[in-house]
Amino acid sequence: MKKLIILMGLGLAVSTATIAQNKKDFDPQKRAEKMSLKQKEELKLDDQQYAKVLKLNTEKATAMHKERMEMQEKRKAEREQYDKSLKGILSKDQYASLEAKRAEHKEKMKGEMKNRKGKKGHMPRKRMNPDNN
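Structure (tokenized):
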């Protein structure tokens, strides 16, 4: 039973990470332009410098996007292989129970994400010592 819970948690963690990545899938060109404009303002770049920085940022953003997509495909393949192996180990009832728990967890996470909608960044950390502000 412990192993089943651990395996289930692992599967959910992988699927949750993939879902989170899908939502952050921005156009690399837009990302590069936004970053370059910010650098132009902050660093007071001239037009020639801006053009070079934009080119560099576009290359970097495109490479990062490609890397992210490749990693996403790799995780998807690993998750499918994991599920296939798990199906071979578990009975039909056990696997159905696992799927039901996954769906339940997914719905719970959707609710939590809706509650965070509009909030930027990560959840605030709790301070260890609230007296130190």
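The chain is about 80% helix and 0% strand. The chain has a mean pLDDT of 82.
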